[in-house]
Amino acid sequence: MAISAVSATTLREAPPPRRQRLLEDERWLAFVLLVPTIVLLGMFIAYPFIRGILLSVTSSRVGMPGDFVGLANFYKIFNDGIFRTSVYNTFVYTGVTTVFKLALGLWLAMLLNRNFRGKAFTRAFILLPFIIPTVLSTFAWKWMFDPTFSVLNWLLYHFGLITGRINWLGDPDLAMISIIVVNIWRGVPFFAISLLAGLQTISPELNEAAAIDGAKPWQRFWHITWPLLLPVTMVVVLFSVIQTFADFQIVYVMTGGGPANATHLFATYAYQIAIGTGLLSEGAAIALAMFPVLFLVVIIQLLYIRRVEVR
Amino acid sequence: MGQVVLKGINKFYESVHAVKDVNLQIRDKEFVVFVGPSGCGKTTTLRMIAGLEAISSGDISIDGNVINALAPMDRDIAMVFQNYALYPHMSVYDNMAFGLKMRKFERREIEKRVREAADILGIGELLKRKPRQLSGGQRQRVALGRAIVRHPRVFLFDEPLSNLDAKLRVQMRVELKKLHLRLGTTAIYVTHDQVEAMTLGDRVVVMKDGVVQQVGEPLELYNQPANKFVAGFIGSPAMNFATVTVTEADGSLIAENSGLRIKLPDEIAQRLRGHVGREVILGVRPEDLTVASSADLDHPCFDAVIEVVEQLGSEILLDMKVGESNMVASVEPTARVRVADKLRVAMRRSRLHVFDAQTEAAI
Ligand SMILES: Nc1ncnc2c1ncn2[C@@H]1O[C@H](COP(=O)(O)OP(=O)(O)OP(=O)(O)O)[C@@H](O)[C@H]1O
Ligand SMILES: [Mg+2]
User: Fold this and answer.
1) Fold for domain B240-356?
2) How far apart are CA B309 and CA B333, in angstroms?
3) Domain count of chain A?
4) What is the ipTM of this complex?
5) Residue ranges of chain A with pLDDT lower than 50?
6) Residue A12: predicted pLDDT
7) Paired sense of beta strands B16-26 and B4-13, if any
8) Min CA distance, B276 vs chain A (Å)?
9) Which B residues in the span 73-132 are in contact with A, Cβ-Cβ below 8 Å?
């Protein structure tokens, strides 16, 4: 006892080295702990973002720094027909796929939430489209949609539904449908597994209570399951919308934006202009044009999520 | 009306035989309590009546109609769950109104019934709140309210008080009893607490391992337990048991083991004629043991050493060593006793129980 008491007092009396004193100040400590995050976010998010903004107001090209041109690039792209098509495509692509992904994902999640043999295996299996690298699976899909080798055509032909070949990726509308299908296929597992996790937090007793209270199955879904799942649903939709809106890989691999620039999205068109054509500043302007829309989506949904959670 | 009949009810969960051949007639307006240790199949039985669990074999009927195939909503029952199962996103009012809305009651009628129930339960002030803004006791009342607004034929309760603290539990128990007297609706109540069972039930069903052990009024179970399990389960502190050998001497029967040798009273001796030379289990409740005085000469007595004295105020519990075994006696608070005292203890003659050593059934 005596010994430890003595050592405690000596410790307090000896002035600690300067560095140690700084770390004992909470504000400094907090700052030190935050530094790695700040550096990472700064390097990989803030810097490219600001760089993009700066680029978009110049006339830079590959190998040419260019001059400040104000909003000329934006003015130019808003008068560009392909850009307008890309905007339209992006909205259609995001809207249609999100609706289908949500509906199918929810349906799958409800099925998986039941008890059946081989449940664990099925749940793991469902995740496959999500696990396979997108580029790989998209190549497989491209093969399936290929006019000559298409499995789809073969099946349809053998069932007598079609007589000639369908050129899936050669027709603007069919090409759009094709990439939408691939995106849905690729996105459903994320919805299904996330919503399943949400469903599992809802006590089965609530559904039983509602069943006794006289609610039919769809009424139970509408009055109990859906409202209780809504916060999870909103978060999942938010993630998905952001990802789909800025999607690149599927379109790039499947159609490259073709035929005749008919299936470009923001990201693929920005890439084509900036890297393909070398008009860096214009590409930056196209990519930046996404920002206000996504920002709005995030704000609206976050506000909504907060409202739902406060209930 | 609300007469419930269970006929040969069985429940299998794959290999588990959870409920075994339960037969029971529940009369209209009766308050029946299922009681038994954890895992004995009480909840399963209740859920089969509610329609939440399929019946493996047997028939359940309400007012003469077999309801095996009816969905829960068509059985005209209401259930109160252990964890309340209140809809978290709805107000108290909407929670109580939900069942009526689903059944397409008129708005005015819904409002009238909800107000009525809220008045009975004293939750009129809380109607606008969400369940998570309520205390456990208030949630319990809302769950009750949700059941009573429907005016069902039968109430089903699955351990509705087990999440409340001890004091509130006693208070809610009384309120439940009053509520039942007031509404007169048939009630089936599941609990593992024998005090709740004894105080609430018009009749009590004791279960063990899926088998009904005894059905009867509370005092009947207390005074004439059908077997050793019921005898030990009902009553607190639990009944004392001693395995004894029955011998005959001078025309009367003696029960004997290492620390005990008593002459059996005539009523019991008659029933044990066939057991001479064999072992039986003797049972006596702590409250039927007293410190022997000269007035107890005609009661069976034995010697004991006190090991622990538990002062409860209204009574004293004595943990005693009797030969090799232990017994508990509940004696008058005025008794002057200390640890290690040697005592002569008397058993109230008319309150002895005997059970078969093999089957454990009462003899
Ligand atoms: N879904 C199920 N699958 C398999 N076995 C089950 C299932 N539900 C219950 N059982 C088994 O059936 C038996 C009876 O269970 P039950 O829930 O009816 O017990 P209980 O009497 O209500 O017990 P407690 O007092 O703990 O609630 C137990 O052995 C239990 O393990
Ligand atoms: Mg139970």
Assistant:
1) OB fold (Dihydrolipoamide Acetyltransferase, E2P) (2.40.50)
2) 11
3) 2
4) 0.84
5) 1-11
6) 53
7) antiparallel
8) 55
9) 73, 77-79, 81, 83, 85, 87-89, 98-99, 102-103, 130
**Residue A163 is part of which domain span?**
77-310
Report the residue of chain A nearest B94, measured CA to CA.
A223
What pLDDT, on the 0 to 100 scale, is given for residue B204? 95
Mutate to test the pocket of ligand 1, among B10, B13, B193 (most ligand atoms within 8 A of CB): B13
Q: What superfamily in CATH does domain B4-225 come from?
A: P-loop containing nucleotide triphosphate hydrolases (3.40.50.300)
Q: Where are the domains of chain B?
A: 4-225, 240-356
- Are A266 and A93 spatial neighbours (Cβ–Cβ below 8 Å)? no
Substitution target from A212, A223, A229 for chain B, most B beta carbons within 10 A: A212
Map tokens 């007598």 to a residue. A160
Q: How far apart are CA A256 and CA B325, in angstroms?
A: 89
Averaged over B254-258, what is the pLDDT? Answer: 85
Q: Is the CB of B39 under 6 A from ligand 1?
A: yes
**Beta-carbon count within 10 A of A18 CB:** 7
CA pair distance B244, B257, nearest whole angstrom: 5
- Tell me: pLDDT of B127 over 60: yes
The ligand with the least distance to the CA atom of B39 is: 1
DSSP string, B151-178: --SEEEEESTTTTS-HHHHHHHHHHHHH
